[in-house]
Design goal:
Elements lengths: L2 H23 L1 E5 L13 E7 L2 E7 L4 E10 L2 E7 L7 E10 L2 E11 L18 E7 L32 E4 L1 H4 L5 H13 L2 H4 L3 E3 L5 E4 L5 E3 L6 H10 L3 E6 L16 H11 L3 E5 L12 H14 L5 E5 L17 E3 L8 H9 L13 E3 L12 H13 L4 E3 L8 H7 L2 H7 L8 E6 L2 E7 L5 E7 L5 E6 H4 L7 E3 L4 E3 L4 E6 L4 E6 L1
This protein binds alpha-D-galactopyranose.
The site of alpha-D-galactopyranose has 9 residues, from loops.
Length: 519
Amino acid sequence: MHKALLVAAVASLTLVAWTQSPAALDGTWQRFQPPARPGSLIAETFVFETQGSHFTGTAVSPYDRRDIVEGTLAGAKLSFRTRNPFSPDALLQVYQGTLDHGILTLVRTGLVAAPGYPYALPPGAGHPAPPVQLRRISADTSFHLPPSLTHPPLPPLRSLPPNGLAMTPPMGWNSWNKFAGKVSDADVRRTADLLVSTGMRDAGYVYVNIDDTWEGQRDSQGNIQPNAKFPDMKALADYVHARGLKLGIYSSPGPRTCAGYEGSYNHETQDARTYAAWGIDYLKYDWCSAGLVYTAQEMPQAYEKMALALRATGRPIVYSLCQYGELNVDAWGAEVGGNLWRTTGDISDHYDSMARNGFGQNGRQAAAGPGHWNDPDMLEIGNGGMNADEYRTHMSLWALLAAPLLAGNDLAAMTPETRAILTNRDVIAVDQDPLGRQGYRLQQQGQQEIWVRPLHDSAVAVGLFNRATVPASMTITWKELGKGNEPVVRDLWLHRPLQAPGSFTATVPAHGVILLRVR
Ligand code: GLA
């Protein structure tokens, strides 16, 4: 055959393959076997819709529902990414696949950062997951929830009066940052004892909050049971209460929690009653898989539904919304009954993560006040990923932000230094100031920032933060604070008064802080 003809023939064959494959991909695909472990991030159902050699669609796991983006098809080979529709600037999962005789083999090759993603990729992000095989179960290209995942209409949104709780930002301990999925009844009891013996309780840390992975199955009446790690929740609550502490628990408005455990979806009233019967004092309610059943616009209503269920029990239960700052929560968090709401993605035990969550809060102060607080996530102090200057920055910044102080370390392994940071009463007094006004950035010069928080006694808390990796000289002039020329000044980390007429200049360590109270 003439060479040009051969090229043309190959090209047209390729074109045939290209034009035939899209139809073969269109539709709903399901894995042969569900994942061994609930909460697996690998989706089980994929809906593809092709346009020529490109496609879009939806990937559904027990955990969430993601948009398929950048789908390209070349012969039997396809590649695409999946993206959380609520956090388009987060991590994307990368898939590659092959279509062969009606079987689609997919490999999730790793994660990539979307433009704007601020962190280094988490460890193991590039690690491929084992291949999964899928069959096309229908040619339908529209995404439908299974009948069990449709919800009855949500009550229309109304504005709830305050529940009278959390008049200052909640303080306590939460299991997630250190214990994650391993937390057990024994850990919670030990922590309760240690909150007392270390002086943390007396410094204000009273909530002992069990995060995700306590959940078991529902019984035949639909009542949620704890799993084997928590043999008797009522007894645990009694144990915690006997030490002058309060017990918190965790669930999701969706069918699954973020770790893949049973959520409260369609069981809100029943779960609220169960919590009240156990003696629960605090609920963290985490969006997780709720995106499977609710649209983003329904988020406030889904949260209000649980607020109403909690209130109907008659037990005072602090209500913590966990939706990673999505959907302008400042505007509706308090009205749906939230005492606090997350304004950020998950913190990790690194300076960059902590700094992004904390310094990123500037401008949110209007939403915070007694009974309703912005929550830039829990504390990492003492978990080992930051040095003492960085942890002092973490504590100071959270105090200036009127943020909840939920320690997340292993109290059994707490060093004297960590304990001193967490129990610094001068700093805690800033956090717990009864005026309840959230601080804000007063000045920024390069990597140096001065933050202030007005306090009830007409004093002001001032943080001199150096975000650089080398020490920096910083100056604050009292006039800028409207506190005259010779205010009474106290250094809240050195625990001593400062004599500094006119202004104060000091060297602030790398990633460090100087925190003052000025009156
Ligand atoms: C989400 C939350 C975390 C933690 C985990 C538990 O990621 O933001 O704070 O509760 O779920 O699975």
